[in-house]
């Protein structure tokens, strides 16, 4: 997959400056084994930022294709790969087929891919684009007004968040990637295992 330029090149530095302040109030306890993900950041996952502590869950809702409100709590119990994108962003468009393949291969009781559009023109452009590339597995989700993206400190597109089973951000990718690559699947599989072990410990 040809690497594309991140739509806002300064976003990585700005994100690093803003996020600690944005999350200071809701500081979370460490997730056991989180450091083990850092060793899996290779190939397509080399740019992934793994947090030392989970970020507080964002409760701002977004909408599905019918306008229904959806929140991260609705995905409770699953690891979520949340990709924030727009049809006008070339790197976003480039990585969407790999996200669709990943959803087809891994979506289930433990995992879900969510592609959250930032298009201001509404869901029509998203539907048109999905149809043009024959998307089979991703559902149309729309951040109307961009409130979710602002709360997530998204400063450029694409941005992909890896969320634990409580909806807390544990890692973030700035820019595009081949999400169906072996290294991506290996890392996400480890997240599923890690969070399953943590959930079972909590229930016990």
Care to give the gist of this entry?
By secondary structure, this protein is of the alpha+beta class. It has 5 helices and 8 strands.
If you had to describe this structure to a student in words, what would you say it looks like?
Strand 7 (159-163) and strand 8 (169-174) form a beta hairpin. The protein is an alpha+beta fold and 204 residues long. It is built from five helices and eight strands. Helix content is 32%, strand content 17%. An eight-stranded mixed beta sheet has the order 1-8-7-4-5-6-2-3. The longest helix is centred in the last third of the chain and has 22 residues, at 182-203. The protein has helices spanning 11-22, 90-106, 123-132, 147-151, 182-203, and strands at 49-50, 62-64, 69-70, 79-85, 111-117, 141-142, 159-163, 169-174.
């Amino acid at each position: 997959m040809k690497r594309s330029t991140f739509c806002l090149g300064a976003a990585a530095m700005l994100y690093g400056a803003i996020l600690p302040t944005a999350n200071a109030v809701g500081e979370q306890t460490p997730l056991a084994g989180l450091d083990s993900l850092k060793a899996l950041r290779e190939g397509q996952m080399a740019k992934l930022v793994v947090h030392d502590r989970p970020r507080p869950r964002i409760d701002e809702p977004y909408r599905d294709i019918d306008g229904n409100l959806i929140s991260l709590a609705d995905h409770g119990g699953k690891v979520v790969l949340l990709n924030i994108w727009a049809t006008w962003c070339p790197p976003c468009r480039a990585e969407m087929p790999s996200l669709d393949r990943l959803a087809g291969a891994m979506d289930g009781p433990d995992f879900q891919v969510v592609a959250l559009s930032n298009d201001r023109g509404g869901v029509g452009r998203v539907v048109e684009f999905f149809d043009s590339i024959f998307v089979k597995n991703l559902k149309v989700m729309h951040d109307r007004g961009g409130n979710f993206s602002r709360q997530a400190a998204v400063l450029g597109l694409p941005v992909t968040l890896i969320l634990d089973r409580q909806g807390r951000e544990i890692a973030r990718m700035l820019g595009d990637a081949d999400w169906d690559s072996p290294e991506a699947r290996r890392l996400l599989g480890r997240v599923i295992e890690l969070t399953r072990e943590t959930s079972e410990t909590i229930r016990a």
